[in-house]
Amino acid sequence: MLSQVFQGLCKPSDVDATEKPQRVLTCSFYFPKRFLESPWFTCITQMSHIPMKMSIEENRDWLSTQVLATCNVEQSFFNDWFTGHLNFQIEHHLFPTMPRHNYHKVAPLVRSLCAKHGLQYVNKPMLTAFGDIVRALKKSGALWKDAYYET
């Protein structure tokens, strides 16, 4: 698929002399952007999801499941900008259609609702969240390695 896209954008044949520089310019911006964007997007989405422990056997209600299956990353100007306000994953799961820049406004209400119902509201530093990704991947890799070499 990617090779077809690349060939379609950067194919030198059947392109007149005026289109060729534009296609090369497009390729020179598109592919580095995707190379940088993909790891960023993966880190932003996974730091709030991978490390959370959720069991099928618990059979909780919708609200509890949304709160316990995700976590937030501490609010700061940098964290809000870097994550596009998706550092408020709990609020994002509870209010998916709410504009992201409003999540910080409902966070205190969600936190008090969680305290009222005895639900853990997890809010961690960004570096801890990134470390959780590495630890979760290391644990998954060890499980896979044990299963693969045991068989």
UniProtKB/TrEMBL annotation:
One of its GO terms (cellular component) is membrane. GO terms for molecular function: oxidoreductase activity, acting on paired donors, with oxidation of a pair of donors resulting in the reduction of molecular oxygen to two molecules of water. It holds the Pfam family FA_desaturase. Residues 36-122 form the Fatty acid desaturase domain. Keywords: Fatty acid biosynthesis, Fatty acid metabolism, Lipid biosynthesis, Lipid metabolism. GO terms for biological process: fatty acid biosynthetic process. InterPro entries: FA_desaturase_dom (IPR005804), Fatty_acid_desaturase (IPR012171). The keyword Protein biosynthesis does not apply. PANTHER family: FATTY ACID DESATURASE 2, FATTY ACID DESATURASE 2-LIKE PROTEIN FADS2B-RELATED. This is Fatty acid desaturase domain-containing protein. It comes from Prolemur simus (Greater bamboo lemur).
